[in-house]
Amino acid sequence: MSPDPIALDPADGQPAIRYGVLPLHEVASVSGLDFLRGMIAGIYPAPPIAEISGMRLGRADEGEVEFEGAPTHAFMNPLGTIHGGWTSIMLDTVMACAVHTMLKAGQGYTTAEFKVHFVRPVFPSSAPVRAVGSVIHAGGRLATSEGKLYDARGRLLAHGTETCFVFDVPKAAAAA
């Protein structure tokens, strides 16, 4: 894919976020770290779930990522707090993307399991929240990571751990 010219958001001068899904072979054509940094730079689109859930990738380094998010009223439960599913989306995203930074070109991954510990309720006023994911161990086929979600005041809202299955992208996908 030849990247489109990068449009800047007039409000903050940062790359405007495009949303979309690329074919697996395109995503796997570069290292995981290069792909995520390309997403930050606006070269690659962010996935649609980022738009729906109100999250944005802010930093990607080897073994660590950081996202910012702001849940919308669509994620509120009857008690007026943000549904735990939104918190789980944020944590699954940062834990999985931390693993993504460790992938070589030609590799993919999927979440095998994750666990979330809810520490405090998330309110709409908790935003913007910050989520940080870090790799604990990156093996040949399994990688483990941890994630933490903080409110705008820096208080821990939730934390979790995750195991991802790392796989080679099938040659058929690369040729498609």
From TrEMBL:
Entry GO MF terms: fatty acyl-CoA hydrolase activity
Keyword entries, A-Z: Hydrolase
InterPro entries the record matches: ACOT13, HotDog_dom_sf, PAAI_dom, Thioestr_dom
Any Pfam family: 4HBT
Segments forming domain Thioesterase: 80-157
Xref: CDD domains: PaaI_thioesterase
Signal sequence bounds: none
Lineage top rank: taxon: Bacteria
Family under the similarity heading: Belongs to the thioesterase PaaI family.
NCBIfam families the UniProt entry points to: unchar_dom_1 (TIGR00369)
Name under which the protein is recorded: Thioesterase
Organism whose genome encodes this protein: Alsobacter metallidurans
